[in-house]
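Throughout our pipeline, every protein is held as a single compact record rather than as scattered files. Such a record has a labelled line for the sequence and another for the backbone structure tokens. The remainder of this section carries one protein's record, kept here as part of the documentation:
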Amino acid sequence: MDRREFLKGCASFAALAAVRGFGITNLLFDHQLPKAHAAHPSSPQQPPPNNRDLLVLVFVRGGLDGLNVVVPFNTSERDRHRYYTVLRPTLNVPPPNSSEPRRAVDLNGQFGLHPDAARGANGVYVPNPHISDSGGLYALFQRGDLAIVHAAGSPDVTGSHFDSELYMDFGGKSNTSGWVARYLDAVSEPIDALAVAPQWGVPPSLLTTSGRSALAIPSANEFGPQWRTNNWTNNTNRQTILNGQRSLLETMYQRGNAFVERLGQVGLATYDALANVLHSAYTPAAPYLTDNSLVADGGVFGRSLEIIARIAKANLANPLRVATIDVGGGYDTHDNQGTVEWSGNDRFPRLVTNLSNNLKAFCDDMNADPQWRGRYVIVVISEFGRVLYQNNSSGTDHGAGNIMLVIGSGGQHGTPNINAGLYADWPGLAHFGFNDGLKITTDYRRVIADVLTARMNVSLSLINTAIFPGLNYTSGLGIGRPRS
């Protein structure tokens, strides 16, 4: 191995250190260090925290068409006529009482789920069954682990993906850091508290100036200091490069006790713990859906959820506090959106199946470990919904109000941590909201605050001053079940 190859490896290692948890994802200036250190001491040795649930944030990027996932088939006679006849004459989901084999699954007599959100449930016709079909979102709803909030959204919504996503990540357009990071700061979690994004980059919701780092893990196989070394070196050189890189970094980070050096030491320790987990064999307790014939993201979402489950269940000394995932694959359905059919245009069925089957698999995988039952909450958001009416390209454009999902984890085992059900201050379909979308009647931050106060022991004061400044939150919808 020559000097050039070794230095190339060091550069790869250093790049990984900077953006994958070895080093700095959020920089502080010298005058900020004392305050950060005092507020966030290092993490003690401990089991998974028993006073706060694990928070998993799933952000469906692109603008999910919530109106065709949770279908208002019978909210009123007027809505029914407008949805099926006026607004979406060829882009609707047939009602539960339809003679169509592929039709919505009734939730409460007013709203129904897209059939691919209930794959595997009794009476639901699926033309292409898969081993991961176990009822999906419908099964979670039935067993008391799913709360659906309709007509939710951001008061800062715009017609832009980029602005609307960022404002949701920051918890308001006036903020300059991510709300998830501010949550960790507000409850005084240790500065090295484990926050993971199982993808190529850390999302804005985890960005902060408080000195906190978050770890991006693109895949279990690619987790490591030799960033894609398989592309430019052979197996014989790989361990030699690793040892040399590690020696250089250890020497650099052990020279003193400055902030950067301490953060480097934490990064190396975190890597060692996670490498042991991610490089070990793992058999999930439920099958995730990664089959390209059924999903449009190459299986990324399913594998990302599996990474979270592996890390959470590993019982690390520095346990997982939060995880965030961005879901892609084509949710920006301006054209050729599709509805329920797998023959022909199967775009929307793929999108729904990916979301539903993998969320259910994650819950079953986690719940197989009894200590996690009732100990985690998943929040699913999207930057906006779609317009109420279909366009001339058999799609839907950017809208406003949408569905939010809150998934709990103990309903089937008698230890529920949420109150399942369908929550909707329903505005109806007679009047258009912003951008001709569904009118927003519930601020998405109110739903999150509901969870944080009930399950993470966050005070109203911290909600309104630190996590969502200016929200003026007083009470939630009753989704989170307060800890006894």
